[in-house]
From TrEMBL:
SMART domains hit by this protein: Alpha_L_fucos
GO MF entries: alpha-L-fucosidase activity
UniProt cross-references to Gene3D superfamilies, sorted A to Z: Glycosidases (3.20.20.80), Golgi alpha-mannosidase II (2.60.40.1180)
Protein name as it appears in the record: alpha-L-fucosidase
Lineage: Bacteria, Pseudomonadati, Kiritimatiellota, Kiritimatiellia, Kiritimatiellales
One biological process term in Gene Ontology: fucose metabolic process
Domain Glycoside hydrolase family 29 N-terminal: 65-408
Keyword annotations from UniProtKB, A to Z: Glycosidase, Hydrolase, Signal
EC number, UniProt record: 3.2.1.51
Presence of the UniProt keyword Transport in the record: no
Family, as annotated: Belongs to the glycosyl hydrolase 29 family.
Annotated Gene Ontology cellular component terms: lysosome
Length: 666
């Protein structure tokens, strides 16, 4: 059965048609829906280049500027929740990362059709037609997420393969027709979320649909397709749609036909028929910005309260995002999101279990995100039959256990005035602070710096044990047990009679190394740019001005000496030999940027391990470091500053990662 309602001049859906000079039809159409719904109308005229230069923030549509006046209302519930469920599930889940004897080790299983160039006929036969999830239980899925602490639920309605896991009016490539399955999983999940009090959202791949004629990436079913990675590399890594060739011009028309006949109509039906409150779009860079902006315009017109993520089109979403599974996060002025998956793959991959992220790693990541006012989603990939892997079931049971004692430290919580500490991070809500202790102090003294208020109570949440404290000059010292009573990270709750006051100042430890990452301080000059936070690019760039700096506010309890080590990245080749300095009080240590890496290898190895890197060399940079000398610090408060010593003769000074202050133990 062909359910599509393609918009062409011959179809009755067209309300108005006129021809413009280029010969491209200008259409204003309505897509028919249920008789109870008002007919939505969207302009199908192929967009002009007017808004392609979206990076010029003065060149934006008026409707978008108007829509951003209500952004705070859209993000309010999302910020309060702090924690949500992400799910990749579709026809690819049937294959589980395997195809004709090939195994997707270390790869995204949801990309299997592209990786192995599977023809559509074979993909339907071996994957889509077999996607009949007889053991799927929407209530069970939603309750697992809810019990683990999640307050919203986002699942792939359509991924890049173009297969819809719901009954779509605008494509035969869906679970109803390609799979011959009568149930609608998306309807059931939407109802289950409403029943159990979760917000419901969908992932929708608006810019990729590999088996459509106007697709990107697929050159095995469509020879000569200009919208591929290979073609972009030939043109010097520019975007395919920026080329002025007959092939590109023709493909631009096919691509817009996909937006008109499938992408936008499916977005409309998701909004109207599935009570969607959040749409998570993806890979906007594969299509012209003006096409993607038209999708957003449709959402804003039909459902102005719907939350939209940043990947609809850079700069246009309701909040800032980042890459898949980042490692570290800078302080940000905007609302932002982190997405993590329990495995490396996002869709079900039976060959990826060795990449499972431990539950406590995910919980520490969640606490870190919330401590910097972010929102996090954890992803799983269910199997094609509707069941979860044993590993994911275990992870969610463990998160449920931790959440029972510590949910208040996440939901409704956020950033506090206090710094990132050597032992972990701090979240806060109302008159309470929550110390997330990742590394338990061997001397049983947990030092909290920068706290100007005195707590009325200090409690270890895992067993409700009251802890004794001492406080002097903004330093709170808590006596903790010999070891924690939990397999996950511990949380210590500090309660105050009024909103606690403090400053971003971390105490330097005198017996263990102090690791000061550049993303763990808000005191950074405006000229520096942070990267996305994957391990291979966890640094600042654009260090071009002598006045640029990264500064940490620290305190010293007792006189101590520290050996100072600096880790940074440089481009793979070039001339980089400018001098830099670390200053603290009246002391100064200097170094010269170089490729030799005059630093103990163990510090580089530790950085590699923490950043989950296999090598100091990545595609764009190489990691090196220097040992600068020794600082002798008296008790007191200091600003530790990293900056250029004089001028900068190279294209950049360097890309700093971490400063390590190693106590000199006597």
């Amino acid at each position: 059965m062909n359910k599509r309602n393609p918009v062409h001049p011959s179809t009755p859906a067209i309300k108005d048609l006129k021809t413009i000079g280029t010969g491209i039809a200008c259409l204003l159409i309505s897509i028919p829906f249920s008789s109870t719904a008002e007919e939505p109308v969207f302009d199908t005229t192929r967009p002009s280049l007017e808004f392609r230069n979206y990076r010029d923030k003065t060149n934006v549509p008026e409707w978008w500027t108007e829509s951003m006046k209500t952004r705070e209302q859209r993000v309010a519930w999302w910020k309060e929740a702090r924690f949500g469920q992400f799910m990749h599930w579709g026809a690819y889940s049937v294959l589980g990362g395997g195809y004709e004897g090939q195994e997707m080790t270390g790869q995204y299983a949801e990309h299997i059709a592209r990786v192995y160039k599977i023809p559509k006929k074979d993909y339907i036969e071996q994957a889509a037609s077999k996607f009949q999830p007889e053991q799927f239980n929407a209530d069970e899925w939603v309750l697992r997420a809810k019990n683990a602490g999640m307050q919203f639920f986002v699942i792939t309605a359509k991924h890049h393969d173009g297969f819809a896991i719901y009954h779509s009016k605008h494509s035969d490539f869906d679970i109803e027709d390609a799979s011959k399955w009568s149930r609608d999983p998306l309807k059931e999940l939407s109802a289950a979320c409403k029943k159990h009090g979760l917000k419901f959202g969908v992932y929708y791949s608006h810019a990729q649909d590999w088996y459509m004629p106007g697709n990107t990436q697929n050159n095995w079913d469509f020879p000569g397709n200009p919208a591929t990675s290979a073609n972009e590399k030939k043109m010097g890594n520019g975007k395919w749609y920026e080329q002025d060739t007959p092939e590109v011009k023709a493909h631009m028309i096919k691509a817009w036909d996909y937006y008109v006949n499938k992408s936008i109509p499916q977005v409309i039906e998701l909004l109207q028929d599935y009570d969607v409150e959040f749409i998570w779009f993806d890979t906007a860079s594969w299509m012209p910005p003006e096409y993607n902006i038209r999708v957003l315009e449709t959402v804003r017109k039909l459902a102005p309260d719907t939350l939209v993520n940043y990947r609809i089109q850079h700069f246009y979403g309701d909040y800032e995002g980042g890459p898949d599974s980042p490692i570290v996060f800078p302080y940000k002025d905007n609302d932002w999101e982190c997405i993590q998956s329990t495995l490396h793959s996002w869709g079900y991959n039976k060959f990826d279990e060795h990449n499972r992220r431990p539950t406590d790693y995910l919980l520490k990541m969640l606490a870190t995100v919330v401590s910097k006012d972010g929102v996090m989603m954890i992803n799983i990939g269910p199997k094609g039959d509707g069941t979860w892997t044993d590993g994911d079931i275990t992870t969610y049971k463990e998160m449920e256990t931790w959440w029972a004692n510590n949910g208040d430290s996440i939901r409704g919580a956020g950033m506090t005035p206090l710094a990132v500490h050597n032992w972990g991070v701090v979240t806060g809500k109302d008159n309470d602070l929550y110390l997330h202790v990742f590394d338990w102090p061997a001397d049983r003294k947990l030092r909290v710096g920068g706290l100007m208020s005195t707590p009325d109570s200090v409690v270890l949440t895992e067993n409700n044990q009251s802890l004794s404290v001492k406080q002097k000059d903004g330093l709170l010292t808590i006596d903790v047990p010999v070891e924690p009573d939990t397999p996950y990270h511990s949380v210590i709750k500090l309660s105050f009679s009024s909103e606690p006051k403090g400053e971003n100042r971390r105490p330097l430890e005198a017996t263990v190394n102090n690791r000061l990452h550049v993303y763990d301080t808000p005191f950074v000059s405006d000229g520096l740019s942070y990267k996305k936070g994957k391990g291979f690019e966890a640094y600042f760039t654009n260090w071009k001005k002598p006045e640029d700096h990264v500064t940490w506010k620290v305190s010293v309890e007792k006189k101590a000496e520290y050996n100072v080590h600096v880790i940074y990245d440089l481009p793979p080749e070039g001339k980089f030999d400018d001098a830099y300095q670390i200053t603290i009080g009246d002391q100064q240590l200097t170094g010269t940027v170089n490729y030799e890496g005059k630093i103990d290898e163990r510090y580089i190895n530790e950085e590699l391990k923490l950043m989950k890197m296999d090598s100091t060399k990545s595609k764009k940079t190489v990691m090196v470091g220097d040992s600068l000398g020794t600082l002798s610090l008296e008790p007191g408060k200091y600003d530790l500053k990293l900056s250029a010593l004089d001028g900068i003769s190279s294209t950049e000074l360097f890309s700093p990662r971490t400063i390590i202050l190693e106590p000199v133990l006597k």
